[in-house]
Design a protein that fits this description.
Elements: H1 4-13, H2 23-44, H3 49-52, H4 59-86, H5 100-128, H6 152-167, H7 174-198, H8 202-209, H9 226-234
Helix pairs in contact: 1-2, 2-4, 2-7, 5-6, 6-7
Keywords: Membrane, Transmembrane, Transmembrane helix
Protein name: Protein-S-isoprenylcysteine O-methyltransferase
Pfam families: DUF1295
Length: 235
Amino acid sequence: MIFGIPLVLYYFVNPNYQIAPWIFPYVNYCMVVVCAVLSSYIYTKSITPVSDESNYSNPEEAWQSAQFYRNNCIIFYIGAYFYLVLSRWLCLGIKFTTNVKTLEIIIPVASSLNILSGVVLLISYISAGTESTSPDQTTKLFGGIYNYMRHPQGLSQLCMWYCASFILNSPLILIPAFFKTLYFVYESKLQESDLLKRFPIEYKKYQQAVPVIPFFKGFKRKDWNLKTTQTKKKK
């Protein structure tokens, strides 16, 4: 990513194109793929702090490590979107269609879905609070949009990848989008496995009540606090 940015920006600031111009779209596309893979890899290392506690002498170190990786994966998320935006001008030339009327339908629809996904992503960040960027062992289960779907951040980001492919009229963007789809399945299972260790009673009930993909029917829960649940049982 560090080497890709100056090379791609060179394309815009150097009118003489002393580097062969055909190389820039390839560099840009490679950076999209690299950022997609690295952001996924780094994020994976931040979602299993409970499972990783046994690997450290002090359990708090596992949470510090998760926070470190979570903060760093954001850099590559931003990098991926940065290069996707540049793909508007640095496209490799492979297109879904060149039919103008078809594009007049596809692009507005994809853009609308992309905006909707962005809104869902923003709401999910608000609902998750600081946990989105800094995992904390004192954090309880979330409310808000998480009452309607279990992984709103992952789903909205995944949708944005597919939308970007159609907005840019570039089937090559489907390659990292397919990768992100497979990763979403893997990451969701891995994260939920760790959450079951963290909230063995509450998260099991949550899984049974709230779907991964929303069906427009929310589950209104009162409280998933472990201490509250145990207190009610004792009474």
